[in-house]
Every structure is written in C-alpha cells, then in structure tokens.
C-alpha cells in the first residue's frame, strides 16, 4: 500500500446546478435560514469518516465538515443517518438538507442530485484476512468473493461500470474481476464477515485506505493488498434544484479550503491531507 504523491491541489470543482422539477430555487436555503438548523445526512460505522464514539455521539471527518458548514451558515447542525440507498436516490422531500457522506459524484447520481463541491479524495484498496499471504495484487482476487458497500462507487468499480466525470481524477483501470460480489449496508458489516476468517464468507473487501487503516489499528485481522485502485473524488450532495443553496455551499467549502480548515480536519482524522490528489 502506498500513496502516489503528485501534490496536485484539489480544484474547486462545481457541478452543473440547474432548477429541477422537484425543487424550487432557494427552497432549501430558505428552510435552513428560517429554522436555524442544517439537517445533514451522513453515515455511521465508517471510522474515521463517520462513526458513533464512546459517548454515543456521531463524529468523524464528514461530521465535522458538515458541522463547520452549518456554523458558517449561521445554523445548528443536526445529523441524521438515512440509508445509503435513500441518500443517493435523491428526491429527499425536505427530510434532510445536505449529504456529507463521502459520496462519489458519478454521472448517474448527478441525474438526481447536485454536487456543489468536491471536498476530498480518498484511495480505494482491497483488504484481505491477514491469514492469507498469497494475495499480493488486485488481480490475485479474480474469481473470488469480494465484499463492498451496496449502491456505492466500490460496487460500481467491482462491476466495471464506475463513471466519474470529474476534473483532476487520475485515470484508473479495472484491476480485479470478482467471481461474486457481496454487498453490505456498510464497510463495517463487510469487515465483520471478513474477520471470520480467510474465505469463510469473503476473500476480500473493497474499502478505502483511511477506513481500512482504522480497522487494522483497532485490532481487525486484516491487511491491505497491492496499490490503491482508484482515487475517488468525494463530494457534498444536495437535492436537485436549489441553485442558491448550492452556490452558498460552494462558497463555504472554497473558503474552508482557502483558510486551511478543510486540510486541518483531514490531517486530524486521517493523518494526511486528502484534499490533495496523491
């Protein structure tokens, strides 16, 4: 496992923001300003990105990024943890205002969501049980059973249909062709199956380097195989159609990047500045 250091600064990437049938311009921003609350969807069970700590509080990189966005909007932050499928489906109907959940801005998702800002990149890596020492590269897992989060970019990668039309993303190849893909609600659930033993339920899990590193540091019997397969751009998502809200989120994230807040949060939670392409 290694990071490819090119030092390219994350560009302020903004996706097409246009009115859509299920949202009127300003509706979300007006609601946040009127209630004084930013309801943010995120995940749980993905340390150090988003997880419940020993005090039963949701915390992590994504949570702190969302909290800082709320602060700069002059609002309180209220986290919610809807299913991943619900987040990527769009048409949120006001149940939450924003999703800060390390979401890859694929072209398919952009049909139902807006992505006003990419806020960091993360390298994807295959993780196996440490008892197996024969897997040395991604292709060694061809034909094997590989786990991944359901309806996420890792599942798309394993199915060889990941599309990321984002400026500055390093090119990637499909380096593994599983025999079977087992999907899970979270990486943590996939890791629970992998920890049962080499090949018991899974041969590997496709996760990301920060999550895999945290699992290993917490005593999980895993090891990472080969080099990162793809560097994902991860974006803040909003429901389709509120140009004013999107513009405000873009402005805030750009400011967080410029004043060093975003990089500092990445260093705090990951030990490295992942707001840069490696």
From TrEMBL:
The keyword Signal applies. This is Amino acid ABC transporter substrate-binding protein, PAAT family. Its main location: other. Transmembrane segments: none annotated. It holds the Pfam family SBP_bac_3. InterPro entries: SBP_3_CS, Solute-binding_3/MltF_N. It is found in: Cell envelope. Residues 37-273 form the Solute-binding protein family 3/N-terminal domain. It comes from the Bacteria. GO terms for cellular component: cell envelope. PANTHER family: L-CYSTINE-BINDING PROTEIN TCYJ (PTHR35936:SF35), MEMBRANE-BOUND LYTIC MUREIN TRANSGLYCOSYLASE F (PTHR35936). Keywords: Signal.
């Amino acid at each position: 496992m290694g990071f490819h250091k090119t030092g390219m600064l994350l560009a302020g990437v903004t996706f097409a923001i246009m009115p859509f049938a299920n949202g009127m311009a300003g509706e979300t921003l007006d609601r946040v300003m009127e209630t004084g609350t930013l309801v943010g969807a995120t995940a749980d069970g993905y340390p150090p990105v988003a997880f419940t700590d020993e005090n039963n509080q949701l915390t992590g990189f994504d949570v702190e990024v969302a909290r800082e966005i709320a602060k700069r909007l002059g609002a309180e932050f209220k986290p919610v943890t809807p299913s991943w499928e619900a987040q990527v489906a769009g048409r949120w109907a006001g149940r939450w205002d924003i999703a800060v959940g390390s979401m890859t801005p694929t072209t398919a998702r952009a049909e139902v969501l807006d992505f006003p800002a990419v806020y960091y990149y993360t390298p994807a890596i295959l993780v196996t049980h440490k008892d197996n020492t024969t897997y040395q590269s991604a292709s060694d897992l061809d034909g094997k059973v590989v786990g991944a989060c359901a309806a996420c970019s890792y599942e798309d990668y394993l199915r060889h249909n990941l599309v990321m039309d984002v400026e500055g993303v390093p090119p990637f190849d499909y380096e593994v062709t599983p025999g079977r893909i087992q999907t899970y609600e979270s990486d943590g659930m996939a890791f629970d199956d992998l920890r049962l033993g080499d090949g018991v339920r899974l041969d590997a899990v496709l996760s990301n380097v920060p999550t895999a590193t945290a699992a290993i540091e917490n005593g999980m019997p895993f090891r990472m195989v080969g080099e990162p397969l793809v560097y994902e751009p991860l974006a803040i998502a909003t429901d389709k159609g509120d140009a004013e809200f999107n513009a405000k989120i873009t402005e805030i994230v750009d400011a967080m990047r410029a004043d060093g807040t975003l990089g500092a949060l990445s260093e705090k939670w990951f030990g490295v500045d992942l707001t840069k392409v490696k």
